[in-house]
Amino acid sequence: YTLKANEIKASVSPQMWGIFFEDINFSADGGIYAELVKNRSFEFYTPLMGWHQPAATAGNAQVLIINRAGTNQQNPRYARITKMSDKDFVLINEGFRGMGIKANEQYHLSLFARQQADKPVKITATLLDESGNAIGTTVIAPDSREWKQYNVSFSATQTSPKAKLQLTFQGSGVLDIDMVSLFPQHTWKQRPNGLREDLVQLLADIKPGFLRFPGGCIVEGRELATRYQWKKTIGDPGQREVSVNRWNTEFAHRSTPDYYQSFGLGFYEYFQLAEDIGASPLPILNCGMACQYNTGEVVPVTEIDPYIQDALDLIEFANGDASTTWGALRAKLGHPAPFNLKMLGVGNEQWGPEYIERYTLFAKALREKHPEIKLVNSLGPNPDGDKFNFLNDTLRKLQADILDEHYYSSPDWFLRNAGRYDSYDRNGPKIFAGEYAAHSKGIGNGDNKNIWQSALAEAAFMTGLERNADVVVMASYAPLLAHVDAWQWTPDLIWFDNLRSYGTPNYYVQKLFANNKGTSVVPLLKDNQPVTGQDSVYASAVVDNNELVVKMINVSAKPVAVDVAVSGVKGLAKTAQLTVLRSDNLAEVNSLDDPKKISPEEKVLPVKGRSIAATIAPWSVYVVRVARQ
Length: 629
Ligand code: AHR
Known about the structure:
Blueprint: E1 2-4, E2 10-11, E3 19-20, E4 51-52, H1 55-58, E5 61-67, E6 77-83, E7 89-93, E8 99-101, E9 106-115, E10 122-128, E11 134-140, E12 148-155, E13 160-170, E14 174-184, H2 197-206, E15 210-213, E16 243-244, E17 260-261, H3 267-276, E18 280-285, H4 305-319, H5 325-332, E19 343-346, H6 353-369, E20 374-378, H7 386-397, E21 402-409, H8 411-416, E22 430-438, H9 452-467, E23 472-477, E24 481-483, E25 494-496, E26 501-503, H10 505-515, E27 520-522, E28 524-526, E29 529-530, E30 537-544, E31 547-554, E32 560-567, E33 575-582, E34 601-606, E35 611-616, E36 620-627
Parallel strand pairs: 1-32, 3-15, 15-18, 18-19, 19-20, 20-21, 21-22, 22-23, 24-25
Antiparallel strand pairs: 1-28, 2-27, 4-7, 5-6, 6-14, 7-13, 8-13, 9-12, 9-14, 10-11, 10-13, 16-17, 25-26, 27-30, 28-29, 30-31, 31-36, 32-35, 33-34, 33-36
Bound molecules: alpha-L-arabinofuranose (AHR).
Domain Alpha-L-arabinofuranosidase C-terminal: 434-620
Keywords: Glycoprotein, Hydrolase, Signal
GO molecular function: alpha-L-arabinofuranosidase activity
């Protein structure tokens, strides 16, 4: 192998390795969004979904759901508890497949309430563990005939991964309640309405170059009425209009009919998250088309202006100063400085001439007003299929900025396509590998696990992305997060239950590439050719300040001896830092109980002269960092 350290082939984009966030698999509600109460404002299709009335006290009160859509369209429903007697009445919220409760943690309970009769109703709130034992309790005594928010904090005495919140209504009278919310004290950066610390930390550790949000098909909705509308997701969480999740009941055998979006994690929080973890924000907006796998509903082009206006207003929300309407709102929400938006996606996996028609109108308006914003267009599913090819040809002719290619395919496809971009047009649009994952079985199949073979194949493929950094400017694995008890799609990068989380082997591949991104690509060749599978090895190299970083992946069952002769340097340091990610078993996985079974190991590699020599163990990812002189 030869490595020409002074022959810079391309700059690596600072955004190169990023993350794709979509509320699928309970990623947001029930996942990274730390709210513990499901259906907190009674807006699910069945208003008491997530709540139940134990038989023992069910006769002691009537629960009436009142809909005030005429005066409060954002949060129309609330519950009226009419006590029939002094006897206690109990309502229990089951959380998102239970509530993860930690011993000694403080919990903040808040709710809106209004007394309707002279005799007041008091609420005792109790956390129950899986066996029904009380593990924390507090009291709220509403004292007003007007809606008022009540906030109390209390601590839990025991840990429980599947706790419930019991509300006991005491005294005779009539009480209205709404927005019943429970958060742990410890959230990411201790923010109210915050995010789960462990999950954000896993994201931050990747050091992602960008954060794509909010999806995915969720941007499109199954029909236009349930598309993602960013303006409905900012401001007071109690006034964010709840919507059914696009992934509700997807793949019937893992049915999740209780999957809704509270939008507690909304666009302001997404921008804030991106900033927190040092990632460039990449919002994707609906382009006037619902999911073409479902209704395929489109807005007539004569009525597309509100959709385009949403995009223009979003740019102002992110970047405008306080003299602008939307910039002022951002400042009022707590972020006077701009969010530094540079890219925007128009539509998710759309296809056909109907997409081009709508995209053209978006592009005209956005380019006129905001030439500084790069636009991202998806090329639809199935790389190289008819739909993909039509969009690829048409968008190239239209001089699109960045094309978003998606590939969910077999590990073998990833190996065969490691050279995919070696011969791409260098003068056309840039490429965003926006959604990819190696699948060993079908999507939604529980056996389609994050096995080592899939991670290894992705690593091999990623050397091809890195080698072609002049064309490929961004890449993200998808989907990102999945709850072990409520997923619709496998595999996924990070898995969690209500208390624990772990990175898959695929996660560690992403992290290794992102943490060793470097600034420029240098040629790494075997017999003057890119290293794309000769002797079962895939490799690429970058420069990172005064260091060279070489990534080598051996996809075979045999060790492979490699000797990289480095030219263009006076010398190399006597030792290199070697990070190895490997397993002897291609079917191996990480799990909640064994989260680091496959995880990087740090070693020291002796270096002789200007040659990096290593015997790459079977089925391994090697990352070598060495200082150059
Ligand atoms: O990542 C899951 C889904 O795959 C995304 O929502 C969609 O864009 C793609 O089809």
